[in-house]
Amino acid sequence: MRTDRCDRDHQGHNRLKGNNLRALSHEDLAATVETIRAFSDANLNVAKAAERMHVHPNTVRYRLEHIATRAGQDPRTFTGLVELLCIIEITDNDQQA
Q1: CA distance linking residue 82 with residue 8, whole number of Å
Q2: Where are the domains of the chain?
Q3: How many CA atoms are closer than 13 Å to the CA of 82, on its beta-carbon side?
Q4: Which of 14, 29, 51, 96 has its CA 20 to 30 A from that of 89?
């Protein structure tokens, strides 16, 4: 998902809140990215995200709460989810470059 906000903030992505994702271990980061993408793909529906991830819905709820606490952005809100998706995309692009 690429948004104008991602394009606009790419030049100064350090301004984006949520760069705390870089401090996560590789395992935690992988689970975080999987959860954020599944939740987004499921249109913010916990049950559908859980089904796609093959976990219990409470696991998704726990992960979303954990992400909000550690990343500084709440993926359960539209703004927080967009910010986190931008950070993931920018980070992915930086690693590929």
Answers
A1: 13
A2: 23-96
A3: 11
A4: 51
Phi then psi for residue 85, to 5 deg, are -65, -40
34-81: pLDDT as tens digits: 999 999 999 999 999 999 999 999 999 999 999 999 888 999 999 999
Single-letter amino acid, residue 46 = V
Residue 34 token pair? 């999987």
CATH class, domain 23-96, is mainly alpha
How many residues appear in the chain? Answer: 97
Nearest to 76 by CA among 51, 40, 31, 48: 40
Tell me the two tokens of residue 30.
């992988």
Give the SS3 label for residue 73. coil
Instruction: Give me 93's structure tokens.
Output: 């692009």
